[in-house]
Amino acid sequence: AVLLAVGAWLKVWPVGIAAAVTAGCRGYGRAATAAFLGVSLVALAPLMALGALGGLWHDLVGYHSGRGVEIEALAALPALLQANFTGRYAPIDNDHSSANLIHSQHLGDLCSLCCALAVAALFCWLLRARRRRRGDLPVRALLVASCLTVDLALVLSKVLSPQYLLWLLAVVCVARCQDAVDTVSARLTLGVLVLTTLVFPIDFGTLGSPGFAGAVPALLLTVRAGLMLALGWRWWQQLRAELA
């Protein structure tokens, strides 16, 4: 039970921070924000230290570095759609405690490389914008950049577990509280979460199956991918306008 609680906290802690910041923005004061941030640091710091001393993080990273592309990731969509057109099951195994595409390690490495390059390029672009303005960037622009960064990381990652979308929800909540993003972006984010819930766990068992049974979750994931790409494009255009 303790391990499950710790694992859940490591997955969803951004939501706690988002709730705290949102409470502070709505007039409940900075005490709530400080409390949540303090609890996060107090809870995570000892765990990280103990994990480093015991070799936990080395074993964990070494174990998961060999995984391929998860079927939840956007990079797996072609294989899922192909299964519906060819009438064959998608090449999936259940190694590394998740459903991955078989022999997709190289594709997973390519996803990780593209993710790192995209985030690094955005960071360099922000540094250039800051130098051009000769001062600090506006808070609104930084919040939009945070949303875009998380969206890029999720879209290009080889692993897109449903709980990872809580990270996107957290930054969008904070940005919306500060009026950095509009209502359309917030609704698109909620749409991504709803589509994810329809697949995981409701229709997850048929994902990768041929015929109509596998077509429904594959179509839902395709629409979800389109919404995430639309969000990224929307935030990129907004960020360019903010720093023009």
Tell me what you see in this structure.
The structure is a single chain. The chain is mostly helical and 244 residues long. It is built from nine helices and two strands; from the N terminus they run H-H-H-H-E-E-H-H-H-H-H. Strand 1 (92-93) and strand 2 form a beta hairpin. Helix 4 runs antiparallel to helix 9 (212-242), helix 5 (105-133) runs antiparallel to helix 6 and helix 6 (139-156) runs antiparallel to helix 7 (165-177).
Short description:
The chain has helices spanning 2-28, 30-53, 56-64, 77-86, 105-133, 139-156, 165-177, 183-202, 212-242, and strands at 92-93, 100-101. It is mostly helical and 244 residues long. The protein starts with a helix and ends with a helix.
Largest sheet: 2 strands, antiparallel
Structural class: mainly alpha
The topology string of helices and strands comes to HHHHEEHHHHH
Average pLDDT number: 76
Shape: elongated
What is the topological layout?
Layout: H1 2-28, H2 30-53, H3 56-64, H4 77-86, E1 92-93, E2 100-101, H5 105-133, H6 139-156, H7 165-177, H8 183-202, H9 212-242
Antiparallel strand pairs: 1-2
Helix pairs in contact: 1-2, 1-7, 4-9, 5-6, 6-7, 6-9, 7-8, 8-9
